[in-house]
Amino acid sequence: MVATCLHLAGFVCSFVGWIGVVVATATNDWVVTCGYTITTCRKMDELGSKGLWADCVMATGLYHCKPLVDILILPGYVQACRALMIAASVLGLPAIFLLITVLPCIRMGHEPGAAKYRRSQLGGILIILLAMCGVVATIWFPVCAHRETTIMSFGYSLYTGWIGSALCLFGGCIIVCCSGDAQTFGENRFYYGSGSSSPTHAKSAHV
What is the dihedral of CA 23, 26, 31, 35, to 10 degrees? Predict the structure, then answer.
């Protein structure tokens, strides 16, 4: 029962984290930049927002974004972070599907627990790979962007990527390390018996 609860907790963390990674990939508010000194930018009310897909200018009454469509002139770190975040988003699809099929409430005929355990471990490994891609991209991007211009602050997209990657790493580790073993995974279920037994007495049943 403890292993089942841990597996559910790992799945929820992984799913929420993957959504966070997808949101971070699709949005452009990664870092808030300033072309001059921070004091000058605050006085002029003119800041920039830099992301994977566009560079934006934020000023009084103006918000203009320039899409980064010319791949040949893009900095290498932008292209690498794009690839990592896209890979993380794509890896989440099979990982979440595998984890859904091994949830305690999902039954697929008389499938042995060992088969569900293998799918669970594969899904957990994919989630950990997803998390590592997100961690590398969300740390690499602001470090390299700071070399090009002055960073005033981090944007909500970067925070979303950090939180999402951390949740995926935490959830994936729980699934891989704390979900029981192949012999007992998914085999036992509990229900309330009737008749001569006590109403609160739980019996074990094999699926």
Answer: -160
pTM for the full model? 0.79
The span from the CA of 81 to the CA of 114, in Å, is 37
CATH of the domain at 126: 1.20.140.150
Strand partners, 206: 188
Q: Is residue 10 part of a domain?
A: yes
- Residue 90 belongs to a domain: yes
Greatest Cα pair distance, the chain, in angstroms, is: 81
Show the tokens assigned to 72: 């040949």
pLDDT in tens, 159-204: 999 999 999 999 999 998 876 655 555 554 443 344 444 444 444 4
Q: Can you read off the two tokens belonging to residue 126?
A: 């994919």
